[in-house]
Amino acid sequence: MVFACGVCWRAFPSGWRARDQHCNATGHCPPAHECALCDYYSDNNQDKLEHEREEHLHCSPCDLDFQSWNNIQQVEFPTPTLITSP
Question: What residues have CB less than 8 Å from 31, skipping those under 6 apart?
Answer without folding.
Answer: 4, 6, 41, 42
